[in-house]
Automatic annotation (TrEMBL):
Protein name: MFS family permease
Organism: Rhizobium viscosum (Arthrobacter viscosus)
Superkingdom of this protein's organism: Bacteria
Region: Disordered, residue numbers: 1-20
Domain Major facilitator superfamily (MFS) profile: 25-398
Localization per Swiss-Prot or TrEMBL: Cell membrane
Pfam families, A to Z: MFS_1
């Protein structure tokens, strides 16, 4: 297996060129392999968050401790992010992705074997360490080979398909339940399949881009602070919902199958709407579309307590899932618009680090808020995140 196939970086593609010319430059086989790998990996990730929360809830664990346990995975993201650019160059991006798939499967085996809160803390940390490089490498691959004229729709497609993988994860819990080995075996098998897909398409995958000045992950924070703030908020929305919505629903007397189905509906909206948001970004600009997603996410926070016990909760969750994750999709599109080469790798790694920060800060803080003020601490915490980002984006509009 080698990683030496060269593809033209995004910076060499003229965005004014005709669509037909841009299509000829897209390595579809490599793109399909990248998206398929991350989709299956996302399915395993989408399964683990609610599964472990359900198990801890049955054990009588407090919401604060459930949130702290969930924060271990994004802590692994934070720890691993600064090392990914150097490791991908030294080991090879394809080899690193395969290794991480195997190690993630071993981590989930250990989690299933122990079934203990305190043993899960380091194991969930390791799961985040091994999951993170696959996301960073895959998104860098995609941004490097995607023509500018098609960036919105292709990154929207990527986010939609990956979100579909997340949706399948919670949905599978409704089929196999949340007890015993069966749900864990689904995740373990998915992790291993990821490595097999990368191995199958390895010769078609590009190297990490080399051009441009070397920049550290920390140095990227000064280049795009607003983009990183948006990633933080998107991470907070997803991690908090996946980790603590089971607690919110249980407090309102909702059965586990309904909670799992609502989480699936949330992620299904994410999956369906990212392509639409990508096309809107191409037509109206990525910044206005990002602002729309933030305000629509805020509306979801306000409507959740009002509609939870009505049938309207289903369309609300569908739309809310799309626009809240759309914050990340639009940030990713802007990353590809503004950066190329080694700064693109550093940017993707910084996105992963901030995604981890959003998860590690959001879940425990929201868990504590729910302990102090009750279950409505969930939508209040999400609303606070959205308000801060909306203010930052409007301030940026005024500066423009």
């Amino acid at each position: 297996m080698t990683d030496n196939t060269q593809f033209p970086p995004a910076a060499t593609i003229d965005p004014r060129s005709p669509i037909s010319s841009s299509e000829d430059r897209i390595p579809w086989a490599a793109m399909a392999g990248i998206i398929a790998t991350v989709t299956i990996f996302a399915m395993a990730q989408g399964l683990t968050y609610p599964l472990l929360s359900f198990i801890l809830e049955r054990q009588g664990t407090s919401s604060g401790m459930i949130g702290l346990s969930a924060a271990m995975t994004p802590t692994g993201f934070i720890f691993s992010a600064p090392f990914i650019p150097a490791l991908s160059h030294r080991v090879g991006a394809g080899r690193l992705a395969i290794l991480c798939s195997i190690l993630a499967a071993l981590s989930l085996i250990a989690i299933a074997w122990t079934q203990d809160l305190w043993a899960w803390m380091p194991l969930r940390f390791l799961l985040g360490v091994f999951a993170n490089p696959l996301y960073v490498i895959s998104e860098t691959w995609l941004l490097a080979i995607t023509p500018a004229a098609r960036r919105g729709r292709i990154m929207g497609l990527y986010s939609s398909v990956v979100s579909g993988g997340f949706a399948i994860g919670p949905l599978s819990l409704g089929l196999v339940g949340t007890e015993g080995w069966p749900p864990f075996l689904i995740g373990i098998f998915a992790f291993l399949v990821c490595g097999l897909i990368v191995l199958a398409v390895a010769r078609r995958l590009p190297d990490m881009p080399q051009e441009g000045e070397t920049i550290s992950v920390g140095g990227f924070f000064t280049l795009a602070p607003l983009l990183l703030a948006a990633v933080f908020v998107a991470a907070g929305f997803e991690q908090i919902l996946l980790a603590l919505f089971a607690v919110y629903g249980a407090a309102l007397g909702s059965p586990e199958p309904r909670i799992a189905a609502l989480i699936t509906c949330f992620i299904a909206g994410n999956a369906v709407l990212q392509i639409v948001l990508g096309r809107l970004a191409e037509q109206f600009g990525s910044h206005p579309t990002l602002l729309f997603c933030v305000f629509a996410s805020l509306a979801g926070c306000l409507l959740l307590p009002l509609l939870f016990d009505t049938w309207l909760i289903w369309p609300l969750f569908f739309a809310w899932g799309g626009v809240s994750f759309g914050i990340y999709t639009l940030s990713l599109i802007q990353l590809g618009e503004r950066f190329t080469g080694q700064s693109l790798i550093a940017g993707n790694a910084a996105f992963a680090l901030v995604w981890g920060l959003g998860g590690i800060a959001g879940s425990p803080a929201t868990g504590v808020a729910m302990q102090l003020i009750g279950h409505q601490g969930l939508p209040l915490s999400l609303g606070l995140l959205g308000c801060v980002l909306a203010l930052l984006l409007m301030a940026e509009n005024r500066r423009r």
